[in-house]
Amino acid sequence: MTARRKVRSRLWSPLVVLALAGTALTGLTVDAQAAPAPINLNSASCPAAISQGESDGCVAELQRLLNLYGQSITVDGVFGPGTYAGVRVFQSQSGIAVDGVVGPVTKNALYNGSGSAGAPARVDLASALCPVDVTVGEKDGCVTELQDLLNQHGATLTVDGDFGQATLSAVKTFQSGAGLAADGIVGPDTKTALYRGGVSQGASGADLRSPSCPALMRQGEIDGCVITLQSLLNAHGQSLAVDGDFGAATLEAVTSFQTSAGLSADGTVGPSTKTALYTGVGGSGTAAAPAPINLTSSLCPTHIVQGEKDGCVTELQSLLNHRGAQLTVDGDFGAATLAAVTSFQANAGLSADGIVGPATKTALYGGTVVTGGCVLIDGETGCASGDAIAPRVAEYAHWLFDSPASAAQTADRAKVLGPYGFGSLHDIPYSWAGGHSGAPGPSKGSCWGYTGAIQPCPADVTVGLDCSGLVRWMYMLAAGVDLSSGGDSSTNGEIVNSHLHAVSRSQLRPGDLIFWGSSLSDTQHVAIYLGDQNVVSADNPSDPLHPYSPPRTGTGPAVMEAWFTGSHVEPHLLSWHSSTPIGYYHVT
Predict the structure, then answer these.
(1) If DSSP codes are grouped into helix, strand and coil, which group holds residue 416?
(2) For residue 337, how many C-alpha atoms fall within 13 Å in the half-sphere facing its CB?
């Protein structure tokens, strides 16, 4: 069995949670025959945009249509998590922006037969059913999954499960944008990048006019081309996070730029918009600055100094302009750029030597930098180690969950969570086997072995974390430590990791781990101890499958955990667990 198949999690079934909490199950079952009569989605009786939470005949019609494209959704007229996941899958297969909202474009696609019901059933690329390297010529569900993921990253492939030339080209484009070797072979690194939902750490931009970027860039694209787009927009006065994700903020910036440039403000970045973006950022006229390169990537020298001419300097000048400089963004580190660097360093309390080294790069990016897998914030100079690991984990749990205390913290959190599409730790949904892709962090999960009440299983289309995935990620952020033992990052693998040391209940300190299960060799759940906290459980209070109705509030020993399908990462009081933990562990 693979590591992904052995991932375990306590209380993954909402029905089990309710039973353990002593909550009555009466009335929770939906009678499919009682569903409202379907209503044509394009009729005046249906809203222009149908979204999660709606319950009516429009949703019954939506569910009926989705099932025509190969899905297995209960037609009950309730737009819940299963229907939401189904909409996103259909949108991805149809080359539509994946937002889970059924607007005019999605409605037309549903009625016009543009889905891909004939494609082989999707298979998780990390499962044992897919080869280590997926290559051109393969025809199966692994390719269906690959094409679906590529469409989520901006491709417009027909999802047919056939790895042909169009899919090969899309793979190479994605790899180039994600800073990977563009060989067209979908191996472990490419799979990890596809499931992470963002460009790789340190990925560089790509020239918008090159063949590696689509002729028409639109909202929903995620790649190195968008890194360049965002950097160019910033050079023209915008203030975007350069994360490679063409989201709502980037769309707004594009339309604003198009309006100011006298172009049609349609939000699509075509040839005219690309030409206008490059105009004025070079030395003269339409001369183009080198494509920006993330300063922390391996493509930039450790110390950037006067005289350098490349994309690293393009990025440097753009960042300095965000801090108040008024440089011509031309990729040439001349006297004006030197003066701007020394001025920035002086204001940031750094040595004003004009050399852009690690400390200056960190400050330019707002204070957050990844070093050896961990994330440094608030003036930290290195990954946590030894007995300092646990308190750093607890600190980061609050740092990512609580309301930001400053604009700087908001920017820092965006760098950690933004690539996954989340604004806070609480935004991250539970996903069975989520967080167990090649690298720690939110990822799509797996439906293998899932028996929960929310059907169809949403894990394989939901980017999120399960309990052990959350723990694995938090310890990587704090210390650069991967608690996966021999590739097994489940609770059974984590509890035997050499970094863990058993302690007594009285010795627990914030950041330590608590395990539940039937024995030390059959663990089922893990959570991060937070110490005494005032807790308000606010997750899904209107969901009839939710165990807190009304939401519980209390003070006492608390944990941060990913609990069950349908919930999100959230702190809970330890006393809310109905069973006794089997072990307490300190990580060094």
Answers:
(1) helix
(2) 23
Residue 579 has what DSSP assignment? S
pLDDT in tens, 471-522: 988 898 888 888 875 456 688 888 888 888 899 999 999 999 999 999 888 8
Question: Tokens for 24?
Answer: 């009555």
Cβ proximity of 466 and 10 under 8 Å: no
Q: Which helix (H) or strand (E) holds 495?
A: helix 491-495
Q: In this structure, what DSSP letter does residue 337 have?
A: H
Cβ(349)–Cβ(551) under 8 Å?
A: no
**Average pLDDT of the residues in 15-35:** 34
Contact residues for 217 (Cβ-Cβ < 8 A; gap 6+):
154, 208, 225, 226, 229, 246, 268, 269, 270
Alpha-helix runs per DSSP H in 116-267: 141-152, 165-177, 188-196, 224-235, 248-260
Residue of higher predicted confidence among 262 and 287? 262
Q: Return all residues near 557 (Cβ < 8 A) that are at least 6 apart.
A: 529, 530, 531, 532, 533, 573, 574, 575
What amino acid occupies position 253? A
Joined together, the tokens standing for residue 546 give 């939710």
**328: confidence class by pLDDT, cuts 50, 70, 90:** confident
- With the C-alpha atoms ordered 232, 238, 244, 249, is the resulting torsion angle positive or negative? negative
With 0-12 / 13-18 / 19 or more C-beta atoms within 10 angstroms meaning exposed / middle / buried, residue 415 is: buried
270 to each of 209, 251, 252, 584, how far by Cα in Å? 9, 13, 16, 57
Cα–Cα distances (Å) from 587 to 169, 515, 526, in that order, read: 45, 13, 13
Quote the distance between the C-alpha of residue 586 and its chain's center.
28
- Alpha-carbon distances of 257 from 55, 238, 262, 478, rounded to whole Å: 39, 9, 9, 39
534: left (phi over 0), alpha (psi -120 to 50) or beta: beta
In Å, how far from its chain's centre is CA 32? 34
DSSP secondary structure of 447-460: -TT---SSSS--GG
State how far the Cα of 471 lies from the Cα of 432, in Å rounded to an integer.
Answer: 14
CA 134, chain centre distance (Å)? 23
* Cα(447)–Cα(72) distance, integer angstroms: 14
Beta strand extents in 445-581 (DSSP E only): 463-464, 500-503, 513-519, 522-536, 553-561, 570-573
Give the strand order in the sheet containing 522-536: 500-503, 583-587, 513-519, 522-536, 553-561, 570-573
Length of the chain: 588
- Burial of 412 by CB count in 10 Å (0-12 exposed, 13-18 middle, 19+ buried)? buried
Structure tokens at 245: 């994700």
Q: Please state at what angle helix 224-235 crosses helix 271-278, rounded to 10 degrees.
A: 50
Residue 88 one-letter amino acid: R
What is the Cα–Cα distance from 407 to 420, expressed in whole angstroms?
Answer: 20
Mean pLDDT confidence for 162-169: 90
Residue 42, judged by CB atoms within 10 A of its CB (0-12, 13-18, 19+), counts as middle
Enter the DSSP assignment of 556. Answer: E
